[in-house]
Write a structure and sequence with these properties.
CATH topology of the largest domain: Rossmann fold
CATH architecture of the largest domain: 3-Layer(aba) Sandwich
Distance between the termini: 64 Å
CATH class of the largest domain: Alpha Beta
Strand order of the largest sheet: 9-10-11-8-12-7-13-14-15
Largest sheet: 9 strands, mixed
Oligomer: single chain
Structural class: alpha/beta
Shape: elongated
Helix content: 25-40%
């Protein structure tokens, strides 16, 4: 009788190295055979790597590494083939995906229940421990991903919660500018790109339209995937371009949203200011300190009372927020928000703000419960 192995083996596919997975597996005698860190067409990838799955116990696939280059049906077909050929456990990483995502529903319908969706560190580790346990996740753990005949996801209380967006406009250009340096424009622009990249059916990219060279510095990280011929990197789940010499190289990638980071308003040339004004949606990032107001006034002189311009304020004291909002006057007080505190720009924040300013450009096809109308910029009272 064959002796049971004292260790198990796995490989994983992701856009970035996953220390939390590797550390947990090492502590639990699960040996890493290899990691594949890039974005792949899953069909072509498996054509070359399928034979290497023999003798594995776990195949861990981060959907962010394959979804942009692979159709859903191809992903399902390859997973079906893998399960037919090998007796291994397929584990799906879908951090931040919502219940009702069509691809997750199709994966669930294959009988794959080991799905990680928690994006926070604690939640991710808990789900990781469960999917790598002897029993794995059960049908009951993953029923929330089940789709009905209309591909509408329901949770256990049957409340519709799917977030599936379609584009109203083929491409949308969004400009983000700070009233001065170090006020948070780059952080907000990256954060907005991250928010859009996590939506179903949406492709977004960040474009560094200034001379700060933030993308160049990010490219030095071991986590960055570099595309030198295009001055492009993939980093922490989003695609970023350094200042382009030829915009046609970027526009040929068929993104739905292009997020332009113009840097600091007081450093922009006249040509750059004119470019900013032409964007479909414009966001001005400012502070509310006395010495920062003049730069904000200068910004108002450039954009005028533009209905497609919004204000975001950083570093405001809680006790001063409402009085400051009112001081902006009738027009701007309802077109501004105070940013959430962002420690990591690659973790989507300000979701409520982004959702509302993007309504003219996105349609949520599956949220059926109508909410009462109210001005989202005004302070919301306690329920």
């Amino acid at each position: 009788m064959e002796e049971t192995r004292k260790f198990k083996k796995y490989i994983y596919i992701s856009t970035e190295v996953k220390p939390v997975i590797e550390e947990y597996c090492e502590k639990n005698n699960i040996i890493l055979v290899t990691r594949f860190i890039n974005e792949y067409n899953f069909d072509k990838f498996m054509q070359s790597e399928l034979r290497n799955l023999n003798s594995l116990d776990y195949l861990i696939v981060d959907l962010k590494s394959i979804e942009h280059l692979t159709d859903d049906d191809e992903i399902i077909a390859k997973i079906t083939l893998i399960r037919k050929l090998y007796k291994l456990r397929v584990i799906i990483i879908a951090e931040g995906y919502k219940h009702g995502n069509v691809l997750l529903g199709k994966i669930f319908n294959l009988g794959i229940y080991n799905i990680i969706t928690k994006a926070d560190d604690v939640g991710f580790k808990e789900e990781l421990e469960k999917v790598l346990s002897d029993e794995g996740m059960s049908f009951g753990n993953s029923i929330k991903y089940k789709l009905d005949n209309n591909l509408i996801a329901v949770n256990q209380t049957t409340k519709v919660i799917k977030e599936n967006f379609i584009k109203v406009k083929q491409t949308v250009n969004i400009g983000v500018v700070g009233t001065e340096r170090h006020i948070g424009a780059t952080t907000l622009a990256i954060n907005l790109t991250k928010y859009l990249s996590e939506l179903t059916n949406i492709r977004a990219c960040y474009i560094e339209n200034n001379n700060h060279q933030s993308v160049v510095r990010m490219a030095e990280s071991s986590e960055a995937i570099k595309y030198e011929d295009m001055k492009k990197i993939s980093f922490k789940g989003i695609e970023l371009f350094s200042r382009p010499e030829n915009m046609s190289d970027i526009l040929s990638n068929d993104y739905n949203f292009y997020i332009y980071d113009y840097g600091a308003l007081n450093e922009m040339t006249e040509e750059e200011r004119n470019s900013f004004i032409t964007r479909d949606l414009k966001i001005i990032v400012s502070g509310n300190k006395l010495w920062e107001i003049q730069n904000l006034i200068d910004a108002f002189k450039i954009v005028g009372k533009d209905i497609n311009t919004y204000l975001v304020f950083n570093f405001a004291k809680e006790s001063e927020k409402e009085n400051f909002r009112l001081s902006l006057g009738e027009y701007w007080k309802d077109r501004m928000t105070f940013s959430e505190y962002i420690t990591d720009p690659f973790e989507a924040k300000n979701k409520y703000f982004f959702e509302n300013i993007l309504k003219p450009y996105l349609i949520n096809t599956d949220i059926t419960e109508k909410k009462k109308g109210f001005n989202f910029f005004k302070k919301r009272g306690k329920k």
